[in-house]
């Protein structure tokens, strides 16, 4: 097949692949294209199941056109949702929010949930699912616009701009008068330290991402959480979305239903142009995006 790239996903985990440190995915190779989630259109095909005009999602190289044999590609229906959603709320980031919050967080109505990286692809979905489950939701994000978006459009109960608050410990404590039952962590660092100080007995902490460390060249140091975890009988668990692969089909169905019913709002930051991919990727580390960051490379032909 000849594939034409339509939407390219840029994701924080790609930073980890730009190093030869051992991890859960192999490093990118010098001299080879970066790869990741891309929605492509089949523009020419000798494949018996994926004809010309089909739209397909795959882990593919950052190229405008790709010659491919078809293995590992999944056809997506243009009727379910906009094509780009398969890289966001109906794709890897949405599934991450769903499986991490529900399996590790185990949210119950009336509990307080804090999510860091709250205005991003994963965070926006975590907070809204927690609202669907009847929780009080507090988001932490990096601008006043993001704080307003979380509160006014996504229905978060409170949101904190961690870049302008002069006392993050107090800001978290004030926003969570009944303490924190669930912490969904996308960032690590001082935001997490502040949340640990407000944990309730039997709190659950889902370690989803640690973006504040991804550019570090030395291991980060800081407050030790263990004495708090001990005193609060709290559970802290890291996870990779693929740990829950057997739940993906049901999770995707439920996410799609919530989107259709208007229970989940979804926002994308779409940058245009193949040559803008590196800029869009770098923007994840300075918080340029609200919701899912994508790059639109081309229009669909069919
Ligand atoms: N475990 C898994 O399987 C899995 C799967 C997907 C994603 N993740 C992780 O989940 C996290 C969110 O991913 P995403 O795709 O949804 O990205 P995202 O939140 O859409 O984008 C990254 C956001 O991180 C924030 N950020 C950047 N540097 C920061 C820092 N030093 N301190 C605090 N916040 C910072 C920025 O928002 P602000 O303006 O708020 O700073 C930025 O918009 C990432 O850590 C990612 O690695 C994990």
Task: Characterise this structure.
The protein has 302 residues and is of the alpha/beta class. The protein has nine helices and 13 strands. The protein has helices spanning 13-17, 92-105, 121-132, 144-153, 168-175, 189-196, 226-231, 248-260, 277-283; strands at 2-9, 35-44, 55-61, 65-67, 74-75, 112-116, 136-141, 158-161, 180-185, 199-207, 235-238, 268-272, 292-296. The strands form two sheets. Strands 1, 2, 3, 4, 5, 12 and 13 form a seven-stranded mixed beta sheet that branches. Strands 8-7-6-9-10-11 form a six-stranded parallel beta sheet, with helices on both faces. Helix 9 (277-283) links the parallel strand 12 and strand 13. Helix 2 (92-105) packs across helix 8 (248-260). The radius of gyration is 20 Å and the shape is globular. The model has no long low-confidence stretch (mean pLDDT 97). NADP nicotinamide-adenine-dinucleotide phosphate binds next to helix 2 and helix 3. Residues 11-13, 93, 96, 117, 119-123, 141-143, 146, 186-187, 189, 208-209, 211-212, 239-241, 284-285, 287, 289, 293 line the site of NADP nicotinamide-adenine-dinucleotide phosphate.
Using brief descriptors, characterize the structure shown.
13 strands; alpha/beta; 9 helices; 25% strand; 302 residues; 6-stranded parallel beta sheet; 7-stranded mixed beta sheet
């Amino acid at each position: 097949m000849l594939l034409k790239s339509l939407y390219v996903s840029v994701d924080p985990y790609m930073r980890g692949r730009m190093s030869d440190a051992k991890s859960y995915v192999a490093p990118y190779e010098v001299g080879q294209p970066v790869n990741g989630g891309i929605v492509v259109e089949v523009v020419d095909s000798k494949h018996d199941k994926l004809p010309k005009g089909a739209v397909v999602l795959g882990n593919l190289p950052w190229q405008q056109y790709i010659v491919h044999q078809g293995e590992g590609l999944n056809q997506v229906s243009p009727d379910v949702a906009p094509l780009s959603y398969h890289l966001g709320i109906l794709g890897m980031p949405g599934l991450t929010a769903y499986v991490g919050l529900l399996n590790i967080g185990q949210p119950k109505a009336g509990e307080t949930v804090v999510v860091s990286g709250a205005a991003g692809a994963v965070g926006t979905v975590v907070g809204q699912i927690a609202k669907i489950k009847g929780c009080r939701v507090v988001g932490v994000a990096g601008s006043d616009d993001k704080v307003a978006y979380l509160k006014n459009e996504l229905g978060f109960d409170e949101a904190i701009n961690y870049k302008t608050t002069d006392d993050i410990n107090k800001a978290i404590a004030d926003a969570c008068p009944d303490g924190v039952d669930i912490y969904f962590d996308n960032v690590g660092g001082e935001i997490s330290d502040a949340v640990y100080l407000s944990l309730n007995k039997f709190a659950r902490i889902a370690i989803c991402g640690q973006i504040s460390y991804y550019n570090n060249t030395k291991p980060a140091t800081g407050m030790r959480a263990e004495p708090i975890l001990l005193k609060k009988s709290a559970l802290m668990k890291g996870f990779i979305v693929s740990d829950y692969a057997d739940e993906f089909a049901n999770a995707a169905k439920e996410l799609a239903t919530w989107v259709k019913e208007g229970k989940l709002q979804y926002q994308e930051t779409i940058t245009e142009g193949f040559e803008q991919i590196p800029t869009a990727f770098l923007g994840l580390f300075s918080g340029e995006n609200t919701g899912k960051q994508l790059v639109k490379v081309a229009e669909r032909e069919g």
